[in-house]
Amino acid sequence: MQLYNTLSAKERAALIQEAGQERLTISFYKYAHIGNPSILRNHLFIRWNDLDVLGRIYVAHEGVNAQLSVPAENFIAFKMHLDSITFLENVRLNIAIEQDNLSFLKLKVKVRNKIVADGLNDQSFDVTNKGIHVGAEKFNELIEDPDTVLVDMRNHYESEIGHFKNAITPDVDTFRDSLDIIEKDLADHKEDKKLVMYCTGGIRCEKASAYYKHKGFKQVYQLEGGIIEYARQVEQQNLENKFKGKNFVFDHRRSERISDEVISNCHQCGKPCDTHENCANEACHLLFIQCQECAEKMDSCCSIECQEVYNLPYEEQKALRRGKEVSNKIFKKGRSEVLKFKK
Q1: pLDDT above 80: residue 45
Q2: More confident residue, 1 or 41
Q3: pLDDT reported for residue 330
Q4: What is the model's pLDDT at position 331?
Q5: How much is the mean pLDDT over the chain?
Q6: Using alpha carbons only, what angle is made at residue 54 by residues 53 and 56, rounded to the nearest 5 degrees?
Q7: How confident is residue 329, by pLDDT bands cut at 50, 70 and 90?
Q8: pLDDT given at position 284
Q9: Which of 69, 73, 217, 316 could join 312 in a cystine, given CB atoms 3.0 to 4.6 angstroms apart?
Q10: Residue 287: strand pairing partners
Q11: Overall average pLDDT of the 205-233 stretch
């Protein structure tokens, strides 16, 4: 029984382009108490592989976190399968605003300790005891209330290219870093302020809402469906859009434009820009913001040193990487000293 991928990303991309079928990029999550994540993991892989689902899915004792793409013609069958799983019945699906058939190129269903890494070891903390969910209209009302504190639960490189006006945007690299910082900064307002949070699709601020309730905050709210669903509701209900810039997403698209405003700059020349790139030098792979002019000048590299390596014959590049630390362990996500105009 096949429980793993048999095609490379390159082979899969060729098949998708050859098929010419529309695919939908979707994300969803659900916190729940799962007894045996491995059994659920195998069940999801077998069924979704049959439906040509591609993506990155995490399963843990605390629930499921999924970011994926599915052929449009298989969407109904995919939804029926979700509804056949008790705790996933009628789960909210965030359908991407900007579609890309190549957003995911492999199906990866992995068992993890948690679906959102939080660094917490508090056994009395119940992640399902969440805060109040609000839609876009109520959210817009709340963030204009002087008794509201609005907090972006995403990382610095996400909020750099887009965020809600007047939001606190912690300068952090990971979700776990933000939890204690926010609690400490807002310790004097557990009783008197409305704590309103948002993130990409809702999963991080839902865990945060349960955590801050556990820590004694009395009025805790989160944006239902995150920025993705907010943008959809704003358009459908003709509401004022209070989000500025782009929404960072964790697939090959890297972002979705929510408003026309460009609030960030190229990390190399300083011009207004909100396009993230990964350094073309595979030994670096740094995530940073780069305008088209700098991309052409630098061969999509973050530095002259990386550009020199990138222009070597590929076998020489491989030889230089041999025995070195793998790229995902040296990710700085815009923190590198080679970037003159980094945040």
Answers
A1: yes
A2: 41
A3: 45
A4: 47
A5: 90
A6: 125
A7: very low
A8: 87
A9: 316
A10: 278
A11: 93
Which residue is catalytic, options 199, 279, 294, 301?
199
Residue written as token pair 């080679």: 338
Is the torsion defined by CA of 243, 152, 209, 173 positive or negative? positive
d(CA 309, CA 305): 7
Contact present, 211 and 120 (Cβ < 8 Å): yes
Q: Which residues of 117-130 are buried (b: 16+ CB within 10 A; e: fewer)?
A: ebeeeeeeeebeeb
Please say if 273 is a catalytic residue: no
pLDDT-based confidence at residue 328 (cuts at 50, 70, 90): very low
Residue 295 tokens read as 């991309």
**pTM exceeds 0.85, yes or no:** no
* Paired residues of 111 in beta bridges: 59
pLDDT attached to residue 164: 97
Query: What b/e string do you get for 149-184 counting C-beta neighbours within 10 Å, with b at 16 or more?
Result: bbbbbbbbbbbbbbbbeebbbbebbebeebbeebbe
CB 110 within 8 A of CB 190: no
Mean pLDDT, residues 267-293 taken together: 94
Rounded CA-CA distance 304/201 in Å is 37
Contact 281, 336 (CB under 8 A): no
Q: Residue 275: what are its φ and ψ, rounded to 5°?
A: -105, 115
